[in-house]
Each structure stands twice: as structure tokens, then as C-alpha cells.
Design goal:
Radius of gyration: 22 Å
Order of helices and strands: EHEEHEHEHEEHEHEHEHEHHEHEHEEEEE
Helix content: 25-40%
Low-confidence stretches: none
Mean pLDDT: 93
Strand content: 15-25%
Strand order of the largest sheet: 6-9-10-11-12-13
Shape: globular
Largest sheet: 6 strands, parallel
Number of helices: 12
Length: 435
């Protein structure tokens, strides 16, 4: 007789890990096990920690989380701790040596083995089924696994392996399945979206995939994350421009703008090429929100290099921007370079970039006052309904705050026309214009 146990899956790191956990949870639920939500304080028999091993801060968070649950196990609050994901893929032997209380440990592509350890069936007929942990109206959809890029600072290819695209047929079926469950917004994710299709179709197929997804009934928004600049398929811009379902939103991580740093990073693109690509995107999609990610304190980043980066931010005026401090990762090409930028300098440079961006964001947000935008409501929090426009991705971008006192009939997961009444650096305020 199959044992019913209480299982909690704790997800750390990026949205790609979120998808992996959701797939695992789908299999667990299909086997009639009791799932304890990640945020719940309720006791579980088994805790599965899906770890991140990308940069130092993420690795430390993963280790601290493992140690916290190991301590809970020692205190009799749970029976077993299972570790999976990127950190365990990269440091399996070290983790088992340093934290022997871990009951089982698995890498990034071992869900079948995890299920065997739990004593439950894989159920191959449920491939693609997931138990969503996001709000029910949006979901991430991973279109490929791994990465063929060899950026000098990045450990992802070491962890996730080579790029493997999923077929368009499989992705379309998943999109239909998600929308049948009430999902209105699908966020396409991968290590590199723009590489999609080169391995199985011998051609970049992201524009074609996005076009086909626009035909999925019930899907309102399609959002693109992680579009690598080198080899960016310009015909994708036509697809975005001509399809209302595709959000006017481009996430394009440029990392730096100095030629010497870009060369050392092995980004295979120059400063001039970066500017030209961004200008083409702005010319074709003048209304689009362009998001980027940068690295501060890469080995050898001089004051001149950093001034170039600041000038670039002031000149281009990204709509959205995130920045990491450089993390010196073993087994990456950059690990052979001298990590010569002190941590406090890295942090100061990152802060300077964000100070510049905060002013840009405030100016751009103030320009929205008095205008009306289509907004999806993500949640009710305190005195506000919290929503987003098509120009904002969940958890990382601006939010639209609507006073609950203004209208009690607003529903989470629904779209509304919202009149913007005020703005801060990273938040908009508004009222629902019509219902």
C-alpha cells in the first residue's frame, strides 16, 4: 500500500527553478501525496530544497536553507531533507561531506530518481503537467534547457549542460493546458531565448514560436525573458509589433558596454553593435519597455570602464534595469583572472548604477501620470490592489497600486483599464476607470 506523506518543495533561485519545482509538484500531487505550500509553517514529513548555484549570494542562501531544515529535522519537526537543483549538481560531493544529515541529493535532471526515492510513480502520461506555484493567472514556460554560450563569468553551462530546445508542438500543448486552467499570461524563459530552435530546427525559431502562441485561445499576454543580444533575431520585432498579445517588453541582458570588458566576458558583441541593436529595437518598438541586466566589478573593470557603463545607462535610458556584483565562480574562464575589484567597490558601483536608474525610472513613470493602461491584478496587499501593465514582469519590475477603498469589486487575475494618478521611482498609483 502506498504511503501518504506530507511533502514541501522549497524553491530558490530563478524562474527556471520555479518551473522545475512545479513539474515535480505535479507528479507528487498525481500520486495522491499531501503537498505543504512553500510559505506554510505547517509541518512536513519530507522537505525537498530546489537550490540555486549561480552566484555566491545564491549559493549561501541555498546552504543556509539546507542547514535550517537539517536543524528542524534534528528537532523532530520533519523526517527527511532532500536536496536537488543547481547547487547539488555542482557541489554534490562537498555537500554530502559537509552536511551528512542530507538524506538524498540530486542534480538538475533527476526528477525520476527523486520520485523513486519518494516511492511514488513517475507517470509518463503526465509529462508537461505542473502544479503552479505562481498566481493562477500567470505562468513561466521554459522553452529550452541548458546553454551553448560560453560567457566567461557564467557557470550555467557547467550546471545545466548544452542547449536543448523543446519542440513547438510540445510547447503549444503546454500553453493550451495552462490557459485551460485560467492562465492569462505566459512568460517564456530559457537561458537564451534567441537561440531557440537552432539545435533541432537548424534555424532560430523564436519568432515563429511566438507567432504560433498568439493563436492559443484564452491567452492574453506573452512575455519574453532572457533574449541574448548576440544573434538577436530581428524578425522577432515584427512579431511583437504586429501582435497585441505579445507584450511590448524586451528583456535583453547586455552585462556591460566597454569593449575590453565585453571581450573578456566572451559576449561576442562590441559596444557599437550593442548600441546599434538597442537602437533598432527602439526604432521598431518605440513603445516597448526594454529591461537589461549588468555586472559591476568584473575583473579588470577600470574607473574608465565604469564611467563608460554609467554614460551608457544615462544615454540609452533603459526602462527597467537590474545589476549584480561580479561573483568569482570556479571552473569558469573568468576564474583564471585576478578578482581584483574589492567587494566594497563592487557594491558601490552597483549602487551608483541603481541611483542613476532610479532617477530615469522616476522620470519615465511621471510621464505616465494622466494616461490609461491595461492592468492585470496580481494580488490584494494591505490597502491596495497590486497590478502590472504589459511593460512589467512579475516580481522584478514596477507595480501599479490601486487603493482598495476606491473600489471593492476589483478581482485578482482580471484585467482593468487604470488611470494613473501618481508615480514613484518604481511604483505607479491609479484608479480603475471602468469595470
Amino acid at each position: 500500500m502506498k504511503t501518504n506523506r506530507k511533502i514541501k518543495v522549497v524553491t530558490l533561485g530563478c524562474s527556471k527553478n520555479t518551473v522545475d519545482s512545479e513539474v515535480l509538484l505535479g507528479k507528487i500531487k498525481a500520486n495522491d501525496q499531501t503537498i505543504i505550500p512553500d510559505f506554510s509553517e505547517a509541518l512536513a514529513d519530507t522537505v525537498i530544497i530546489n537550490t540555486c548555484g549561480f552566484i555566491n549570494d545564491a549559493k549561501q542562501e541555498s546552504i543556509d536553507t539546507i542547514l535550517n531544515y537539517v536543524e528542524a529535522k534534528k528537532n523532530g519537526k520533519l523526517k527527511e531533507v532532500i536536496v536537488m537543483g543547481c547547487l547539488s549538481q555542482r557541489y554534490k560531493d562537498t555537500l554530502l561531506k559537509e552536511i551528512p544529515e542530507i538524506d538524498a541529493i540530486f542534480g538538475v535532471n533527476e526528477q525520476t530518481n527523486i520520485l523513486k526515492t519518494l516511492g511514488i510513480d513517475y507517470k509518463s502520461e503526465l509529462v508537461g503537467e505542473r502544479l503552479l506555484t505562481t498566481s493562477s493567472h500567470f505562468a513561466y514556460m521554459k522553452i529550452s534547457e541548458g546553454c551553448d554560450r560560453r560567457c566567461s563569468f557564467c557557470a550555467i553551462p557547467l550546471i545545466r549542460g548544452k542547449h536543448i530546445s523543446r519542440t513547438q508542438e510540445e510547447l503549444l500543448e503546454e500553453a493550451k493546458s495552462l490557459t485551460s486552467k485560467g492562465v492569462k499570461e505566459i512568460i517564456l524563459i530559457a537561458q537564451d531565448l534567441t537561440y531557440y530552435g537552432l539545435d533541432i530546427y537548424k534555424k532560430r525559431k523564436l519568432p515563429e514560436l511566438v507567432s504560433k502562441l498568439t493563436e492559443v485561445e484564452g491567452l492574453d499576454w506573452i512575455r519574453l525573458h532572457y533574449t541574448y543580444p548576440t544573434g538577436f533575431p530581428l524578425d522577432l520585432l515584427e512579431v511583437i509589433a504586429n501582435n497585441e498579445k505579445v507584450c511590448n517588453y524586451i528583456d535583453i541582458p547586455v552585462q556591460h558596454i566597454s569593449n575590453s570588458i565585453l571581450a573578456s566576458m566572451k559576449r561576442n558583441i562590441t559596444s557599437t553593435q550593442t548600441y546599434n541593436l538597442l537602437d533598432k529595437i527602439r526604432d521598431k518598438l518605440p513603445d516597448a519597455a526594454i529591461r537589461t541586466t549588468l555586472i559591476a566589478g568584473y575583473p579588470g573593470e577600470s574607473e574608465k570602464n565604469f564611467r563608460e557603463l554609467k554614460d551608457f545607462i544615462r544615454t540609452f535610458r533603459f526602462d527597467r534595469l537590474g545589476i549584480f556584483t561580479y561573483s568569482h565562480e570556479e571552473d569558469t574562464p573568468a576564474f583564471n583572472l585576478k578578482n581584483n575589484i574589492p567587494e566594497e567597490v563592487k557594491q558601490q558601483r552597483a549602487a551608483e548604477i541603481m541611483e542613476i536608474q532610479e532617477k530615469i525610472s522616476l522620470e519615465k513613470n511621471r510621464d505616465k501620470i494622466g494616461k490609461i493602461y491595461k492592468v492585470i491584478i496580481d494580488r490584494n496587499e494591505g490597502d491596495y490592489y497590486v497590478g502590472r501593465t504589459q511593460y512589467d514582469s512579475p516580481e522584478v519590475d514596477n507595480e501599479v497600486l490601486i487603493p482598495t477603498s476606491a473600489d471593492k469589486t476589483v478581482k485578482v487575475g482580471k484585467f482593468y483599464q487604470v488611470h494613473i494618478t501618481d508615480a514613484e521611482s518604481f511604483d505607479l498609483f491609479g484608479i480603475v476607470k471602468d469595470l
